[in-house]
Amino acid sequence: MTNPIHPEAEALLRPRARLITAPDTRAETLRALAAEATGLIVRAQLPDDILDHAPHLRGIVRHGVGLDFVPIPAATARGIPVANLPGSNTQAVAEHVFAALFHLRRKLASLDAILRDRGWIAAKPLASDLDEVGGSTLGILGTGEIGRRVAGIAKAGFGMRVLGHSRSNRNLDGLIEPVDRETLFSESDAVVVACPLNDATRGLVDARLIRRMRGRAVLINVARGPIVEAAALAEALMAGRIAGAALDVFEIQPLPGDHPLLACPNLLLTPHVAGTSATSLRVMGRGAAEEMLRILAGAPPRNLVNPEALANLSRRTGRAERGEPAVR
C-alpha cells in the first residue's frame, strides 16, 4: 500500500494477505517494495516503470477515482487488472467545492480575523461588498460524477444557473446547460474544474481562458494541478483581474515552500484533501480492500477500468506464487 488505509479495510485484508505500507512515496521506495507484491493499493503517484519491478503483481486498485496515478497501458499490456472506486468520494469533493466557494465569496475567515484584530466597527462594513452565491452562475468544466453532484447542489440548494462543458456534454440530467469552454469562462461567476487529467486537458485552463473570466469571478480546481496553468492564474490574481481562486491540487505535490502561488492574494490553498473525510476514507478503504480480495481470489474486480487485461488474467493467476500474498 502506498499509504495507510482505513483500519476497517486493513481488517478485511489481514486474514488473506501480509500488509505492508510504504514508509514514504518516493519512486525508489515504491519500486523496492513492489518486488514481492501480489497486489498494490494506490493512494499516491506510481513511477511509470513500477511494473518493471513487480514480477508477481496480480492487480492494482486505486484508492479513489482518478487514474493518473497508475500506468494503465503498461498494466494492460501485462494482463494486470486495474480497478478504481467510482463515486467513493464524490460527496466529499462536492462539499469541498462549496466550502471553498463560500470562503471566497463570503470571506468569513477575513471577517473573523479583522474583528479580532481591529474590532467590530472595522469588520462590519466589509460584508457590504460581498456577493451572494444564490442566483449566480456556476460553470463546471468536466460534467462527470463530481461535476453533476456539484451541479445538483448548486441548482437545488442555491438556485444557481449552472453551465457545463465536457467532451460529450451528455448525461447532464437537465441540471446543466451545455456550453463551449469560452462561454463557460466568460459567463460564469465561479468556475469549477472537475475534469480528468489527460493529454487533452493538460494546460487546458490557460491564460486565454482565464482572461475571459469576469472581474468578480473565482476559479476552483479540485481535479488535477496540471489542468490549470499556474503561472497564468498567479498573474491574474496578482493583477487583480479575477476575484480569487481555490486550489486543492498542484502540478508539483507537495507544493514547494518557495512556489509563486504562495504569494498570491485571494487564493485558498489546500493540500489535495477535497476528497478526504472520515466518511470517504472509510468508503474508499473498504472498497479498495474488497476489490483487492476479488483480484487475489482470481476474480475480476467490479470496477475494472482496463477490460483488455482480462484475457491474460487467468494465465497470470496460474503463474502466481502460492502461499501468503503480500499487498503493498
Description of the structure:
This protein has 328 residues and is α/β, with parallel strands linked by helices. It has 2 domains: 7-87 and 277-327, Rossmann fold (3-Layer(aba) Sandwich); 90-269, 3-Layer(aba) Sandwich (Rossmann fold). Helices cover 36% and strands 12% of the residues. The strands form 3 sheets. A 7-stranded parallel sheet has the order 7-6-5-8-9-10-11, with helices on both faces. Strands 2-3-4 form a 3-stranded parallel sheet. A two-stranded parallel ribbon has the order 1-12. The longest helix is centred in the last third of the chain and has 19 residues, at 278-296. It is elongated. It starts with 6 loop residues before the first helix and ends with a strand. The relative contact order is 0.18. The mean pLDDT is 94. Belongs to the D-isomer specific 2-hydroxyacid dehydrogenase family. Residues 2-306 form the D-isomer specific 2-hydroxyacid dehydrogenase catalytic domain. GO terms for molecular function: NAD binding; oxidoreductase activity, acting on the CH-OH group of donors, NAD or NADP as acceptor.
List keywords for this structure.
Rossmann fold, NAD, NAD binding, 7-stranded parallel beta sheet, D-isomer_DH_NAD-bd, alpha/beta, 3-stranded parallel beta sheet, 2 domains, 12 strands, oxidoreductase activity, acting on the CH-OH group of donors, NAD or NADP as acceptor
Largest beta sheet: what is the strand line-up? Answer: 7-6-5-8-9-10-11
CATH level-4 homologous superfamily of the largest domain: NAD(P)-binding Rossmann-like Domain
Kindly provide the radius of gyration, computed on alpha-carbon positions and rounded to a whole number of angstroms: 22 Å
Terminal-residue CA separation? 4 Å
Which CATH class of the largest domain?
Answer: Alpha Beta
SSE ordering? HEHEEHEHHHEHEEHEHEHEEHHE
Low-confidence stretches: none
Class computed from helices, strands and strand pairing: alpha/beta
As a percent range, the share of strand residues is 5-15%
Keywords: NAD, Oxidoreductase
Family: Belongs to the D-isomer specific 2-hydroxyacid dehydrogenase family.
Protein name: Hydroxyacid dehydrogenase
Domain D-isomer specific 2-hydroxyacid dehydrogenase NAD-binding: 99-274
